[in-house]
Amino acid sequence: MEFLVNRKVWLFTTFIISLLLLPVLISSAQENAGDTTHAALKGHISGVLLLKSETRPTDLADAIKVIDYGKFQWAIFPAGSRATQRPDATDYTFWLGGNIINTAEGAPLESVWGEARADTKNLQLVQLIGPSKAEWRNALEAAGLEIVQYIYPFTYVVYGSQAAVDGISSAEFVRWQHSFDTGFRVLPQYRTITDRAAQPHRLVIYQGADRGALEAELTTLTGSPVQFETLNQTWAATNLNLTTETLAQAARLSGVFTIQPIPTNGGLRGEMSNQFIARNLNGSGVIQPGYAAWLAAVGVNGNGVIVADVDGGVQNNHPNLVSRLLPCTGSTCGGNATDSHGTHTAGIIAADGSSNVMLNGFQRGLGVAPGANLIEQLYSPTFTQAGGMLKLMQQSVQNNAVISANSWGPAGTPRGYDNDTMQTDIGVRDADSATAGNQPLTYVLSFMNGYGGISSQGSPDEAKNLFTIGSTNMQSSSNGAQLSNLFSLSANSAHGPALDGRTIPHMVAPGCSVDSTVSGSSYGFKCGTSMASPHVSGGAALFFEKFRTQRGVDPSPAMVKAAFTVIADSLAGNQDADGGTLGNPFDSKQGWGAFNLSAVISPTYPSLYVDQTQ
Length: 614
What we know:
Elements: H1 2-41, E1 45-51, E2 65-68, E3 72-78, E4 94-96, E5 99-101, E6 122-128, H2 134-142, E7 146-151, E8 155-160, H3 162-168, E9 174-179, H4 182-185, H5 188-191, E10 199-206, H6 211-222, E11 229-230, E12 235-242, H7 244-251, E13 256-261, E14 267-268, H8 272-277, H9 291-298, E15 306-311, H10 340-350, E16 358-359, E17 362-363, E18 373-378, H11 388-398, E19 403-406, E20 408-409, H12 419-429, E21 442-446, E22 467-473, E23 507-512, E24 514-518, E25 522-526, H13 529-551, H14 557-565, H15 597-601
Parallel strand pairs: 15-18, 15-19, 19-21, 21-22, 22-23
Antiparallel strand pairs: 1-3, 2-3, 4-5, 6-8, 6-9, 7-8, 10-12, 10-13, 11-12, 14-20, 16-17, 24-25
Helix pairs in contact: 10-13, 11-12
């Protein structure tokens, strides 16, 4: 009997102990499962964005992890899963500093271009497991990491100590972390040069770094005083001379984001065309006169809109421009500078045709937006300064311009997403960071005269926020006669894509050849992408007037770009700059297609504009 009682006590005690141990065992199993999942998330994976309403349980059968975002979810699958073969699957690989980084395999770079300084705060890289969440960003900041720059997909450049990065590495939302190596800060083509004498470079730093300490270190390194110029709240830049050796040393310093040689091959990119972009052609495809009458019929001419013509100078007293130019204040203003190229681009934008000079029945010196006003700015030498691109844009908005017309570029060869390109993207969103709020600027750029090929663009042609315009055929330069192949690219126009694979240019317009105003109070023909983008700048002025009348506000640069590209005409079946046959847009030759002004200003179908609602 005693044995039975003791046995019952033993069994009961064992049961109680098992109950007590069960949560511990479950917790341990969960932790092991969590560790396994987190380890898997650091391997070869792909993610897919799925709408909850359209997702079946079987779609997630082999998912490593599913992250909830409300109406959609981010599903992460292992390598080999059928889901990774979907065209919309993202494999977490990204492009940085000319390097393709597969975060499942680390980021090996040459030893001399290895890790940056780790004995102080510096730039670091953190990749998340999916689309960013506010709580994840808050956690990064709580760990002592300042968010500096986003890189697709799901990657942030952050500023902080190595200890802070190491501390966050075990967080369930962090896939990968790495120091922002010196090899990410200098492009490969500049890292391979040896024993180079001192040459001018542009160095960009994160403003949160110790700016004074950096200036002192760089002054010691170069032997010359160094002072940074603020670009915006995040970035500052300076120009300095660096050798191969000092370039590598400077790239290690705390807060240095990029160092790039300053380009030296930049410069200019040299009424019938108006009627063509308005698509006023007869049934045989012959352009008809009457652009002024068409403007009157659609009720816009650019009145009240100011365009900055950033070029080589304008003949201020040209009879078709004298009433269009406004006084300009600032160091970049043209003053007495006169240039035939600048006079030509200004005329395409806004010449008023008041001279009534005719050629082949068409009015000469009549711009796309003859009621708009112009301010004259000189691109050179300001663009060579550390913050020169932004200074040009800042002074445009300070003179009340809402559109910046640019038939030039600081570099004539592809340079990827360089600092000049970065500055234009910054300025489109806010061209004057010293003034409260954002001062947006629609920036229209002539794509490089790269003569076809592959990736024959210049800089800042690879920017994301501006509007890049290639060139199509237009008129004979000898007699002004209409060319037969109006819907083919002209031979001078560059082809993309961007060096990181993005599709450029965004659109094309008439450029070769175009009749407009020239110096000497005269008129003439010029061929180039330089002549293409002013058509779009003038068209943008007309759109601004229309949008202001209908909405009472200015359209954002994104709205202008969207409104123009969505109705561009496909050039499929016509020729690219190499004489090959074009397919359907969107591609890296015609972009979204040929500029159709009539479809923008006077659409024949209901249109709904939704601009910056969030």
